[in-house]
TrEMBL record:
UniProt GO molecular function: heme binding; iron ion binding; monooxygenase activity; oxidoreductase activity, acting on paired donors, with incorporation or reduction of molecular oxygen
Keyword entries, A-Z: Heme, Iron, Metal-binding, Monooxygenase, Oxidoreductase
Keyword Heme: yes
Similarity comment text for this entry: Belongs to the cytochrome P450 family.
InterPro entries, alphabetized: Cyt_P450, Cyt_P450_B, Cyt_P450_CS, Cyt_P450_sf
Protein name (database record): Cytochrome P450
Protein source organism: Hassallia byssoidea VB512170
Annotated Gene3D superfamilies: Cytochrome P450
C-alpha cells in the first residue's frame, strides 16, 4: 500500500512488521502475537498509521467517541501520489455508508438499516439459504472433490444476496462484480502503484454503475413495493423522510459485507475444522454444537481482522501519544487471540465459553448483518458436514493455500477438498 505518512509521530518506532509477507497473509496470528508482546500500540511507518493488537485497547477503541469512522483520509492515503479525482465517484458513494458515519447520522442510518433485517425477513431467507446450499452441493456430490471457495463459499452469497435484494436475474452478475470491485479498494489492498491505480479505477467505475442500478430499483419499488430488502429499505426511507440519494450507500454496505465477509467466514471455518480433526469429529458426533462452533470459527480466524478509525483529537492509547488526524487500525483478529482475554487462544475449541470475540465488532458499529451471517454459516456448515461426512483436504493439492492480499478482508483464494 502506498502512503503519504499521515500525522507521522516525531519519533516513530523503528520495529517493522510486514503484514503483507507471504507467511503473514496465510497465517497472521504469529505476527500479531509478536506485535502484541513487543509493541501493542505500534506506529507503522510504511502504511502511515497506528495498529492496536491488545483486546482491551481494541475493544475500548471500538466504543471511543474520540475516534471517527469517517475514513476519507485513509482512502486518499491509499492512492499515494495518484490524483484524488481518480476515486471521486467511489468517495461519493462510500462516505455516505453507515459504517463510515459518526453519531447522530450513524444512529439515524442504523435505525433505517435495521428495517431490512426484521425477524420476518430473516426467517423468509432461511429457506433460500438452505435450498441454495443444497443446490450447490448437488452439483459436486458425485465428483468426489470440490474447491470450498469456488464451488461453495463464493457462489452461496452470490445466489442468496441478489434474491434477498430482489435484483432481476439480468442485473445480478453485474451488481455482484461492481460490489466486489468497490469492496476491494475499500478493503485496504496491498500492491504496487500500478495495482493500486487499477483497484481505484475499477472501484470508481463500479460506484457509478452500482448507484445507477440501485436508483432504478428504488423507483420500481416505490411504485410497486415487495418483501425484498430494497423494498423494506425504500419504505423505511419514505416513512422517515430520508434522502433516497443515500440509499445506494446503505445497499453497498450490506452487499459488500454479506458477499465478502461470508465468503471468507465459510472458507476460514472449514479450514479450521479440517486442521483440527478432533474438533471436526466432536461436531459431527454432536451437531447441536454448531452454534458455539460457529462462534469459535469467527474468533479463531476472523474474516475481517481490522477496522479503521481516525483520531478526532490528540489522545493517548497504551501510553503512546497519538496526534489528531491519525489513522488507527483496530486489530480485531489480534484481539481475538489475546491471552489476557481468552484462555489458550491459539487452541481451536468449538465448546469455548464464554467467547466474547470481536469478529463482528462491538458497540454502535457492531455488524448490522450479524444475525444473517450466523444463519448462513450455521446452515451452510451443518449441511456440508451432514452431506459430506468424509470431508478432508485434497492430498493431491497440498500447496500452501493463499489468502487475499488485503488488510480488511481475510479468506482463502482456494481451498481444495475431497470427500
Amino acid at each position: 500500500m502506498n502512503s503519504q505518512h499521515l500525522n507521522m509521530p516525531a519519533r516513530a518506532n523503528q520495529q517493522t512488521y510486514d503484514l503483507f509477507a507471504s507467511g503473514a497473509l496465510v497465517n497472521s496470528y504469529p505476527l500479531f502475537k509478536r506485535m502484541r508482546e513487543e509493541d501493542p500500540v505500534h506506529y507503522c511507518e510504511s502504511f502511515g498509521y497506528w495498529i492496536l493488537t491488545r483486546y482491551r485497547d481494541v475493544e475500548a477503541a471500538l466504543r471511543d467517541e474520540r475516534l471517527s469512522s469517517n475514513r476519507t483520509a485513509l482512502f486518499i492515503n491509499q492512492l499515494g501520489s495518484l490524483d484524488v479525482n481518480l476515486i471521486q465517484n467511489f468517495l461519493d458513494l462510500i462516505t455516505k455508508i453507515m459504517v463510515e458515519q459518526d453519531p447522530p447520522k450513524h444512529t439515524q442510518l442504523r435505525k433505517l438499516g435495521n428495517q431490512g433485517f426484521t425477524t420476518r425477513a430473516l426467517e423468509s431467507w432461511r429457506s433460500i439459504i438452505q435450498n441454495t446450499t443444497d443446490r450447490l452441493l448437488d452439483n459436486v456430490q458425485n465428483q468426489g472433490g470440490m474447491d470450498i471457495v469456488s464451488d461453495l463459499s463464493i457462489p452461496l452469497p452470490l445466489f442468496i444476496l441478489p434474491e434477498i435484494f430482489g435484483v432481476p436475474e439480468t442485473d445480478r452478475a453485474n451488481m455482484l462484480e461492481w460490489t466486489m470491485n468497490i469492496g476491494t479498494f475499500w478493503g485496504a489492498p496491498g500492491g504496487s502503484n500500478i495495482e493500486i491505480e487499477e483497484f481505484a479505477l475499477h472501484a470508481d467505475r463500479a460506484a457509478v454503475q452500482f448507484s445507477a442500478l440501485i436508483r432504478q430499483l428504488i423507483e420500481q419499488r416505490r411504485r410497486q413495493p415487495g418483501t425484498d430488502m430494497i423494498s423494506l429499505l425504500t419504505v423505511a426511507y419514505l416513512e422517515q423522510g430520508f434522502n433516497f440519494e443515500e440509499l445506494p450507500s446503505l445497499c453497498i454496505q450490506i452487499l459488500g459485507a454479506g458477499l465478502l465477509t461470508i465468503t471468507d467466514m465459510i472458507s476460514n471455518g472449514v479450514n479450521a475444522l479440517l486442521r483440527h480433526p478432533d474438533q471436526l469429529q466432536k461436531l459431527q458426533q454432536n451437531p447441536a454444537l454448531i452454534n458455539s462452533a460457529v462462534e469459535e470459527m469467527i474468533r479463531f480466524d476472523t474474516s475481517v481482522p481490522f477496522f479503521f478509525r481516525i483520531a478526532k483529537l490528540d489522545l493517548t492509547i497504551g501510553g503512546k501519544d497519538i496526534p489528531k488526524g491519525s489513522v488507527i487500525a483496530l486489530g480485531l483478529g489480534a484481539a481475538n487471540h489475546d491471552p489476557q482475554k481468552f484462555d489458550s487462544p491459539s487452541v481451536f475449541n468449538i465448546t469455548r465459553s464464554p467467547n466474547e470475540h470481536l469478529g463482528f465488532g462491538s458497540g454502535i458499529h457492531s455488524c448490522l448483518g450479524a444475525v444473517l451471517a450466523r444463519m448462513e454459516l450455521t446452515i451452510c456448515l451443518t449441511t456440508l458436514l451432514r452431506r459430506l461426512p468424509n470431508l478432508r483436504f485434497d492430498p493431491d493439492k497440498q500447496a500452501i493455500p493463499t489468502k487475499h492480499k488485503s488488510l480488511l478482508f481475510k479468506g482463502f483464494d482456494s481451498l481444495p477438498v475431497k470427500f
